[in-house]
Each structure stands twice: as C-alpha cells, then as structure tokens.
Design a protein that fits this description.
- InterPro entries: Aminotrans_II_pyridoxalP_BS, Aminotransferase_I/II_large, ArAT, HisP_aminotrans, HistidinolP_aminotransfase, PyrdxlP-dep_Trfase, PyrdxlP-dep_Trfase_major, PyrdxlP-dep_Trfase_small.
- Its EC number is 2.6.1.57.
- The strands form three sheets. The protein has a seven-stranded mixed sheet, sandwiched between helices. The chain has a three-stranded antiparallel sheet with strand order 9-12-11, with helices on one face. A two-stranded parallel sheet has the order 1-10.
- Helix 3 (about 90-100) packs across helix 8 and helix 10 (about 270-295) runs parallel beside helix 12 (about 340-355).
- It contains twelve helices and twelve strands.
- It has helices at about 45-55, 65-75, 90-100, 115-125, 140-145, 170-180, 205-210, 240-250, 255-265, 270-295, 315-325, 340-355; strands at about 30-35, 85, 105-110, 130-135, 155-160, 185-190, 215-220, 235, 305, 325, 330, 335-340.
- The longest helix is centred in the C-terminal third of the chain and has 25 residues, at about 270-295.
- It has about 350 residues and is an alpha/beta fold.
- Helix 6 links the parallel strand 5 (about 155-160) and strand 6.
- It binds pyridoxal-5'-phosphate.
- Pyridoxal-5'-phosphate (PLP) binds near residues 89, 163, 190 and 220.
- Pyridoxal-5'-phosphate (PLP) binds next to helix 3.
C-alpha cells in the first residue's frame, strides 16, 4: 500500500471533534441521560403516527425545498416564506451560515464558554475564532463583543440563552449591541432554547430581525419540540442571507419524516409547550434545591443548569454517574446538567448534595 494519503485542508488540523453527551449506561442500576439537553418526554402519539406513515415512502427523496414546513413556519411567525430556511438541525444551519459568510482571513466572534459547535464550524470554514469571555456572572459580555469587531469580522453568534450557562441577555443590552454592529456583519441570534424562557426582559429574536437586515435567528425542533433525533432546525433571515442558506444547504438534507414531524409538532404546540411548562417547573425545583444545598447556580432560562466546578468538574460528573445520572462535564470549567424527568432530577439533587457533603 502507498505511504502517501490524500491531501486534506490544513484548517482541519486540531479541530476538536464534537463531543456528544455521553449516553446513559445500559448495565447500571438506573441510568438517566442528562448530558445532551434533550427533551425527556417520548414523542406525542400524533407525531409518532405521522412519522410512521411518512416512513412508508422513504424510498423517495424528500421535498428539497421543505415547502410545507417553510409555509407553516412563515405563517406561524408572520414572515415571508422566502425568509425561512431549514437545515439538518440548527447546528446544520449554523454551519451553513458560517460557510456562507466567512473563510480564511475572516473572523467569527462568539462568547466563551458557549455552544461547542461554534469553534468547530468556524475552524472548518478556515476563518479565525474570536472568543470573548463571559462576564464573571457567566453572561455574554456584549460590550466586549462589540469592541472585538474588526474589518475582518463576518459573523457574530449570540447564544440566548447561552449553552452551557443558561444565562440570557435582555432587550436593552441586545439592542444597544446590535446598534454598534456594522450592517455588513451578520449577527446570529441562536435561540435553540427560546421556548424555555420565562424572563420577560428577553426579547424574541424574530421581533429584532424584522427591522435589522443583518440579524438572523436560529431555532430548532430538537429541544422544546422533542425531535432531536430527526434533525430539523431553521433560520429566519432577510434576503440575501436566506438565499445564501438555500445555496449552502446539503440537498435533501431534511428527511420527509422530519419535515412532517415538524409540521404536526407545530400544530400540537399547545401540548408540547405544556410539557415545556412542566420542565420549567422542574428547572425551578432543581435550581432551588441546589441553592438550598449551598451551590452557586447562575439564573438559567434553558432546560439545563450550570455548575462552575473548576478542577472538581470531572470528580463531580463521576459522582453523578455512580448515582445513576450522566451529566456533561467541561473539564476544568464546569458541569452542565439537563433538566430531565422528575426521578432523574431527584437522583441528581441527591448526588449533588452527597458531593457537597464530601467536600
Ligand atoms: C445553543 C445551541 N444551538 C444549536 C444547537 C443545535 O441543535 P440542533 O442541531 O439539534 O438543532 C444546540 C444543541 O445542543 C445548542 O445548544
């Protein structure tokens, strides 16, 4: 066999591979997966029926343009259908956005720590990442992010609520920031956890996009709508950003099953958002429980909580796993724990208490 191997782009060197949340152990006593910010509820019966019916035609390609879903979303949000672009999960759309705006010599700004996919998709594009540290309270430092803009900046991610801290930025500060961003720099408001927000200070990105051609909003069916495994997300953006997303989309990337499941999920929104309401109640219980134990927990508006554990991060994650819940450690930094089913949250709270007592 030849010693040489195909030449790969130098930009790919050193890219950390995306680490999915660890699955729950199958051989332990009980094991709950609280490591991927998934929705713990099983699919609604109506969604399941639609998916099963759609599966009968998977010998055919899906609707390339996702027409039915795009129309449904356009009506739901009161935007032109030409402003809606779908993709293989919102991470797929995020990657298309970077691909459409940035390449070698360009810069992409985002807060850090934030969603782990941002550095990966930026590096793949050949652009440079500019990471702006969160404030000591774990919130986006929007003033510092605006200060970091240069002539080379092409795209800025604002993750609201932020993954993994759950913290939010409010309307006033976000508008002040947007006023400082030049019109030729794209601002992506990543609202993957939008439906879990209860803080009235947080604006709906779709309202902000309407008056600002350089603002794009990212949403997903993976979290509140419980379709993580089907891979469907979308952006709302003005032309030509939405058109660029159609150009960079993987052809037929969103399956027909996913398209139809997303449509019925939008129509079953009351029931799904009722489930979100229950998770929000659980979130309150988990946060209050942790605080009562003496932990410092940032105010979260997402379906997870953040514990800044520093050097004790891995030990804490291991203690949780022994207790029966798998959480998401970011070694040296902190642990993100998804709010799951009541029983899982109980096990987690108990494990957290045990860990604290052992300190
Ligand atoms: C902030 C944020 N954006 C986007 C995504 C991507 O979700 P999906 O690709 O499933 O839509 C996630 C998933 O964890 C996320 O946390």
């Amino acid at each position: 066999m030849s010693e040489t191997s195909p030449k790969l782009r130098a930009e790919l060197e050193g890219i950390p591979t995306y680490k999915p949340g660890k699955p729950a152990a199958s051989d332990g006593p009980v094991a709950y997966k609280l490591s991927s910010n998934e929705n713990p509820y099983p699919p609604l019966p109506g969604v399941m029926e639609t998916v099963t019916a759609a599966a009968a035609s998977f010998n055919r390609y899906p609707d390339l343009a996702c027409t039915g879903l795009v129309d449904e979303l356009a009506e739901r949000f009161g935007v032109p259908a030409s402003h809606v672009a779908t993709g293989t999960g919102s991470v797929g759309v995020a990657q298309q956005l970077v691909q459409a705006t940035a390449g070698p010599g360009d810069e992409v700004i985002y807060a850090w720590r934030s969603f782990e996919a941002y550095p990966i998709i930026t590096q793949i594009s050949g652009a440079a990442s500019v990471r702006v540290p969160l404030t000591p309270g774990d919130v986006h430092d929007l003033d510092a992010m605006a200060d970091a803009i240069t002539e080379r900046t092409r795209l800025i991610f604002v993750c609201n609520p932020n993954n993994p801290t759950g913290t939010v930025v409010g309307r006033e500060e976000l508008e002040r920031f947007l006023d400082r961003v030049p019109g030729d720099v794209l601002v992506v408001l990543d609202e993957a956890y939008r439906e879990f927000i209860r803080d009235p200070r947080v604006p709906d990105g779709i309202e902000l996009y309407r008056e600002r051609p350089n603002v794009c909003v990212l949403r997903t069916f993976s979290k509140a709508y419980g379709l993580a495994g089907l891979r469907v997300g979308f952006a709302v953006a003005h032309e030509p950003v939405a058109a660029a997303l159609r150009k960079t989309a993987v052809p037929f990337g969103v399956s027909q099953i996913a398209q139809e499941a997303a449509i019925v999920s939008l129509r079953a929104e009351d029931e799904l958002l009722g489930r979100v309401g229950s998770l929000v109640c659980e979130r309150t219980r988990v946060v209050e429980g942790l605080r009562a134990q003496g932990w410092t927990v940032p105010e979260t508006q997402a379906n997870f909580v953040w514990l800044r554990l520093g050097e004790r991060t891995v030990a804490f994650a291991e203690a949780c796993e022994r207790a029966g819940v798998v959480v998401r450690p970011f070694p040296g930094d902190g642990v993100r724990v998804t709010v799951g089913e009541t029983e899982a949250n109980d096990i987690f709270l108990k494990a957290a208490e045990g860990f604290r007592k052992g300190l």
